[in-house]
Amino acid sequence: MKYFCIFMRAGFYRPSDHTISIGGVQTYVYDLARLALSLGYAPLVVEMNNDGREARYELDGIQIQQVSVPGKHYFQRCFDRVYRQLAAPGNIYVIATDQLSIRCMAPGVVAIQHGIAFDEPIDKWYAPALKMLKCWRNVQRVAMVPHMVCVDYNFYNWYRTLSTVTPRHTLTVIPNYAQGCISEAELSEKLARTRRRRVLFARRFVEHRGALLFAAVARRLLREFPDVEITFAGRGPLEERLRALFGGDARVVFTTYEARESLSFHRQYDISVIPTVYSEGTSLSLCEAMSAGCYCVASHVGGMTNILLDGFNGRLVPPEEAAVYEALREAMVGPEAAFRDVCRNAYLSARTAFSKEKWQSRWTRVIQNLADDERA
């Protein structure tokens, strides 16, 4: 039996309701494990922790194992423990995010880089030195494994300014994807009935994903447009604070949806906002909204600049309240024909350039190359 082991932080699987947790990395890991299963591997997701939790579960043909090692540097020590137990020719070991800082130069090891995660604002006198240190540490992470897959060209080109891509440490770009697309007929039907008033924020409720930024924008929209409908879809530590900001306004809805329901869920909305403040790759949320024919307003952070051309298939704006508000207002009151053109172009972009089939094909080539490395 050939194992396809994916190592990640705890929080992938929720035993309480037998589902995966909400989040782009969780969805990515699930889809990658399912792809490995279709290629004849036995997928194993290893959730690493240092608080003593150890258990085994199974979900849709994917084995899930909680592994715990006490103390510091437990990601590396958990990885080493499982690697020693399962080391065998033909196995593949995927580090679900390079930020785990796991080092292993053995064949068959690949890490995933999900976008620059160290671009958060720092308002301190020592910010330049700290930023340089963060850059250096992330350059070093590429050298910890023989192969790395990154989800956007933004990281690839940033890395080339500070180091060199060499055959010893390969760097492959595989952009993120939409789970599927609505049909042409469904798109036409949707655009014929759109009111340009149903606005969706489908992200985790955390500051760096723009939850508070959009909340401020939403309050302005609610004052200006009595018929606007705003939906916050997700979970996160800011949920109670967000609910309190809207005081039970019937035009504001809080809900969740399963990853497999993404297409049908997004289809209900006219406009999707992805106002990330910092740290973003090629956003799954953005790709999924485009595939459902939504008009997308996104901040020009990270890999989202690889997806949208401003004014053609969406809007790209600074991660600032005024800019996001103006773009959303323009979508709601601007020419209807221009709105529909942007939605159609977004749909075509998702269907052709960011399809799940293309993502699967690119990952299949990576997996085949890793298997060849193991046999070499």
Description:
Helix content is 40%, strand content 19%. By secondary structure, it is of the alpha/beta class. The protein is globular and about 60 Å long. The strands form three sheets. Strands 5-6-4-1-7-8-9-10 form an eight-stranded mixed sheet. Strands 13-12-11-14-15-16 form a six-stranded parallel sheet, sandwiched between helices. The protein has a two-stranded antiparallel ribbon with strand order 2-3. It folds into two domains: 3-177 and 356-375, Glycogen Phosphorylase B (Rossmann fold); 184-353, 3-Layer(aba) Sandwich (Rossmann fold), CATH 3.40.50.2000.
Helix content: 25-40%
The DSSP helix count reads 12
Shape: globular
Task: Tell me the major beta sheet.
Answer: 8 strands, mixed
The chain-level structural class is: alpha/beta
Count of all domains: 2
Beta fraction of the residues?
15-25%
* CA(first)-CA(last) distance: 19 Å
Spatial strand sequence of the major β-sheet: 5-6-4-1-7-8-9-10
Helix-strand sequence:
EEEHEEEHEEHEHEHEHEHEHEHEEHHH
**Poorly predicted runs of 5 or more residues:** none
- CATH class of the largest domain, named Alpha Beta
Q: Provide the CATH architecture of the largest domain.
A: 3-Layer(aba) Sandwich
CATH topology of the largest domain: Rossmann fold
Number of strands: 16
The CATH superfamily of the largest domain is Glycogen Phosphorylase B
